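As a representative case, the lines below give one protein's residues and fold tokens.
***
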Amino acid sequence: MPVQRPRGSRRRSADQPTRPEGPLPVVVIAGRPNVGKSTLFNRLAGRRIAIVADTPGVTRDRKEVETVLRGRFVRLIDTAGLEEAPPDSLYGRMRASSEGALAQADLVLFCIDARSGITPADEHFATWLRRQDRPVMLVANKAEGRSGAAAAMEAWSLGLGAPVAVSAEHGEGLADLMGEIAERLPPEQPTGTPPDEDALDAEAGEALATPADWDEEGDAPPEIVLPERPPGPLRLAIVGRPNAGKSTLLNRLLGEERMITGPEPGLTRDAVAVQLQDEVGPIELVDTAGLRRKARIDAPLEKMSVSASIEALKMAEIVVLTLDATLGVHEQDLQIARLIEREGRGCVLALNKWDAVEDRNKQRKAIADRIEFSLSQMRGIPVVSFSALTGAGVDKLLPTVRRAHEIWNKRIPTGALNRWFEGALERHQPPLVEGRRLKLRYMTQAKARPPTFILFGTRAEMLPEDYQRYLVNGLRETFGLPGTPIRLLLRGTKNPFGEG
């Protein structure tokens, strides 16, 4: 039987280029607001990453992605629109973020709107770019059809060379643009050796087992050990309500002003992924837009922001739920935590702005009581208190995340699991159902991420929820699984003396 590849994975084709070792060349898309930079970014990336809307200034924080353009791996960066504004204003902070990206660019794609023609802002920033000592390629976007291509020729007046006419929305001219980008990039670095994914799939096919392969006579199945794939970065998402300090926390972890921050709530509009390295290994860290109650979300742009945040949560391995410690645990925080549990993600509760809490002992007890009462399905969730603004206590967060990741990946030997299971049955017998006692036979761990267990027995599917909670709590306490979601699947066996 062929091995089914996990959902979301992609097979490496024979002619697909191998990622080179070391840093990739950086391609930055820049230009004034509403010229189609994010649409072009999505086209070049080959998938929808940045939020796109017919509203100026949608992009506030720069977004990055690794992609392949004409056989060359590049790090592609989308930036906020370039605007003249005071440095301490929101648009001034957005421009400073864009300038930070341009400073590391190997190639700048200066994007203009061919339909609108050359504006004074285009001329101003073209002059500014010529002084930055960075290779610049002029891209005339929204140049659909013959009239658009003719209008693009007006861009010669900017003094940045021949414009490349494209329509990111309709996909026109992108092949020529990718070819031009590949030609202007620095020489390629040596490549590494790709992992043999076919061999890994063959090993997985030999190791995988389904419930149908297991013994139905009551004997525990052999332990399942899946081969490990090459380690990748830990995928970590930072979520929470607006103005909880998520972007400030990300900046503190990175040690740079990567995300735009300020007193205004809701500054982050899109899910922004960055790379981080701690003493253990790489981390892919995603900052998300604030999640409000559904009834308060009206604007289409905010709906897209919320959708991007939820998608980032689903793709993460561990989620840092960031709370404003001065406000305590809000009902919306609990709703987000329940979503994390339903998606099976590991969770760390981050109490930000702890330096502003007056009575810390009282607040700590109030938060602990609320969590214990309202999040019983995530009992033992790790809590870290800190101040992202001053940095006090932030150093405790990533080690706590690593421990939560280990628990989320934990596997329990089948023998130890069933010895505990026998003791649990002796301490508390299964209840009567329809006047007959359930006969539970054995338990095995089907997978980790999150820990998932299968319980076999006669009419096991009829096991009441309170007894299921008894078993889950016992697993959590005995095998050290605090705070992580635990899945318990029930599999009944056929009665050979029954009907049919």
In short: The longest strand covers residues 439-447. The longest helix spans residues 300-315. The CA atoms of residues 65 and 125 lie 25 Å apart.
